[in-house]
Amino acid sequence: MAALVGAAWMPFDIVAGAELAAAGHMAAAAATIVAGDAGRHVAALADDAFEGREAGSRGGRAAGAYIVEAIDHLGLEPAGDSGGWYQPFGSMRNILALARGSDPTVADELVIVSAHYDHVGYGNASNSYGPFGFVHNGADDNASGVAGLIEIAEALQSMPSRPRRSILLAFWDGEEKGLLGSYHFLRVRPEPLRDFRIAFCINLDMIGRLRGDRVEVYGSRSAAGLRALTVAVNNRSGAKPLELAYDWKIDPDSDHYPFIERQIPTLMYHTGLHDNYHRPSDDVHLVNLDGLEPVARLTFATAIAVADDPASPRPFRPECRRESQSSQQMLEATAARGKRGRWGIGSRSDAAELQGPVVVRVAADSPAARGGMLTGDRIVMIDGVPLVDQDDMVRRLGDAGKRVTIIVDRRGRLVQLDLNEDAT
Ligand SMILES: [Zn+2]
Question: Ligand 1 centroid vs 158 CA: distance in angstroms?
Fold first, then answer.
């Protein structure tokens, strides 16, 4: 039967080269991210005193000052203009903090972890579903992401050594007015960052409503192997892995979009829309503060994995912009055709995740069916060895004895299946 794979023997080498010692330090640092601290930041940022944090307003500027105060003592490098934390544009301000990488050969490559801190102020017909004229506190949108990012900054600074690439923590302003802060950053690089190349971006927007452990993941097709990377990170933590809902659509609805436009591989985590979205009722008491902790930890671990990634720089996949939910359904849908072999597994390869063929058919009464395999599973390992690609899978399943142990990625969680050809 299906069993959740425990942390004790996780296949670390799915993210090739990740070392156990580094993983240990990473886990200790991730453990500094706690719900209580994140919750305090959400409560502070979503207080009426900030008047809904509209970009350029006094409340928005006060929120910026709060963030600077929260990160000022951590020992990060200010990466804004004039030696400060802020990158001003008009009446708005991005806030930029740099953790320089430890490997001189790749320290000029930047992994950006970002969240927008502005919201819609008192709301109007163009940015709110109403009622207008009341403070829109934006506790989920996006005090939650900012709180996570502040916690990530602290976790990063608690590591005994820095990851190989540099990490830039970016708090964007003006997102609600049209992604203004992230667009500005990409157009005008602040002086301290002129010599860096942007390798990757991880964006957080609305991570405060975790329901049933389900986190939406956007951008996983923007470079090859990002699903495998995030699945490995998700399953490596000691805690129960989250359910990762990979969504292929890429909309211009948050700060991941300008990076995708610039052909920079980008991931975004999001815990889903709700009835209080862009309404005055997006308030602290509705935020799942306990849920912030695992999402922020996942984000931190993803950032470290990318910053240490031996496979980087991962080339951007332009195809990601043409892929959609319907191409996703086509890939993952049950197919009548296809060889199913003696185990009863029909699979398709996936151009973005060659090492993780998708199960599109499980023959009735086959060893795969009896072993609990489901369509939509992605085959990650056979008998303890990661796959190279679908051909490798077909060959190895053909060569296997009467029993085979398969690890699949099922909605972002690794599940072990024991298939037995003789059992009935
Ligand atoms: Zn919003």
Answer: 31
Rg of the chain, C-alpha, whole Å: 22
Q: How many A from CA of 298 to the centre of ligand 1? A: 22
- DSSP code of residue 314: P
289 Cα–ligand 1 center, Å: 19
Q: Is a pLDDT exceeding 90 seen at residue 152?
A: yes
Q: Is the pLDDT of residue 198 over 70?
A: yes
User: What's the CATH code, domain 9-318?
Assistant: 3.40.630.10
Helix (H) or strand (E) holding 180: helix 180-187
Q: Report yes or no: 279 and 128 within 8 Å, Cβ to Cβ.
A: yes
- Centroid of ligand 1 to alpha carbon of 278 (angstroms): 6
Q: How many A from CA of 322 to the centre of ligand 1?
A: 24
In the reported structure, the alpha carbon of residue 176 is separated from the centroid of ligand 1 by a whole-number distance in angstroms of 6
Residues whose CB falls within 8 Å of the CB of residue 276, separated by 6 or more in sequence, listed in order: 140, 282, 283, 286
Question: Contact at 8 Å (CB) between 380 and 387?
Answer: yes
Extended strands (E) in 15-164? 77-78, 86-89, 92-99, 109-116
Query: What would the DSSP string read from start to end of 348-371?
Result: E--TT-TTSPEEEEE-TTSHHHHT
**Long-range contacts made by residues 9-14, C-beta under 8 angstroms, separation at least 24?**
10/232, 10/235, 10/236, 10/414, 11/232, 11/380, 11/381, 11/384, 11/386, 11/407, 11/414, 12/232, 12/236, 13/386, 14/228, 14/229, 14/231, 14/232, 14/380, 14/381, 14/386
- Peptide linkage before 265 cis (omega within 30 of 0): no
**Residue whose C-alpha is closest to residue 191's, from 77, 283, 279, 274:** 77
Expressed in angstroms and rounded, the spacing between residue 119 Cα and the centre of ligand 1 is 6
For residue 116, report the distance from its CA to the centre of ligand 1, in Å.
9
What pLDDT, on a 0 to 100 scale, did the predictor assign at position 335?
61
Where are the domains positioned within the chain?
9-318, 325-420
For the chain, the distance separating the N- and C-terminal CA atoms, rounded to the nearest angstrom, is 13
Give the per-residue pLDDT at 336.
Answer: 53
325-420, which class in CATH?
mainly beta
Q: For residue 33, how far is its CA from the centre of ligand 1 (angstroms)?
A: 24
pTM across the whole model? 0.93
Q: How far is the CA of 142 from the centre of ligand 1 (A)?
A: 7
CA of 1 to the centre of ligand 1 (A): 43
